[in-house]
Amino acid sequence: MTTPASNTGALAGIKVLDLSRVLAGPWCTQMLADLGADVVKVERPVAGDDTRHWGPPFLKDAAGHDTREASYFTACNRNKRSITVDMAHPEGQALLRRMAQEADVVVENFKVGGLAQYGLDYGSLKALNPRLIYCSITGFGQDGPYAERAGYDLMVQAMCGLMSITGHADGTPGGGPLKVGVAVVDVFTGLYASNAILAALNARHATGEGQYIDMALLDVGMAVLANQAAGYLATGQAPGRAGNIHPSLAPYQDFATSDGNVLLAIGNDGQFARFCAAIGQPGWAQDARFATNTARVQHRADLLALMEPVMRGRTTAAWIALLEDKAVPCGPINTVAQAFDDPQVRARGLRVELPRDAGDGIATVAGVASPMRLSGTPVIYRNAPPALGQHTDEVLRGLGLDNGAIAALRERKAV
């Protein structure tokens, strides 16, 4: 499991065996790969990661025609090398154990106990490599009454209470629980998992020993309730849905304008006073009902009754132009297309185009740049999201196998 040369990332030299698929695990390992780790993604022969088929939309070839590869896969698999191994095959299992002996990290998201039958569980691999850091990602964790259940982002968004605070209130137009527009629990689980792995790598410097990491989507879903969970624990009162209104700040929401909508995010009394001065209503900031944030939250209905007609008197662009130099947070509600066209997004280079030379007709793959900006060891975009099995021969040669041995494994359908 040799690491490619000319890698200067912060995690250069760290080898990750990625047995995960779909989103939470791959999101974790893409972060490690972006930071310079050599991530080898193990996929099923022929089928590959489930998300390769989760389309439309699909990637387009150089002629602009749809391919058979879904764009979903590309969101979380760049900078990795893909190999195909049948872990149900004894020789496939032996290959993966051999790779684990040389790895620093294993990430997997099989059901609880699912890899024990292949000798790929933590206990089996720790015996071969005591320095191994092994991260398991499941829906509900390794213990508890739900441990055996399969867990998916949508299910966990519902169970953890996130959907109960997302969407418009019951009885209003469009009211009812809603999921977030991205599989946010999966994404956050990937973030937490990568942080845990980095902590375990640091701990290994002191102890020389690896460790086991138990990550559960439900645990993460509860954790990212953040201030909403804290409010419930402080009061015993469960928060509800309130659309785009912030439960603890006012005015902090969207407003209708003369030609659309605008977002105001006023987080303190000084910002509110500057807003009032800008619209020619300085007296609002001295009104006892509105002078402090707490008062504004308590008298939100009165405040909105005054603000909503005023906000409808200008266009969205006019509001942004009026407030942007007053240090009053205000902005448009963009579509994804508009967001990518935003001058700040363009200036930050948040769209990246990565070339892919896999012989499948896909010349480049577009993606979103990593938000991690390290001055000394910056993220390097080494590889586009790989074609299925693109690096199988390369990785197996790194294990010392020659072309004949690789061909024999392929003939026996182990890879």
From TrEMBL:
InterPro entries on file: CoA-transferase_III_domain, CoA-Trfase_fam_III, CoA-Trfase_III_dom3_sf, CoA-Trfase_III_dom_1_sf
Domain of life per record: Bacteria
Pfam families recorded: CoA_transf_3 (PF02515)
GO MF annotation list: CoA-transferase activity
Keywords assigned by UniProt, alphabetized: Transferase
UniProt key word Transferase: yes
Keyword Transferase: yes
SUPFAM superfamilies on file: CoA-transferase family III (CaiB/BaiF) (SSF89796)
Protein name: CoA transferase
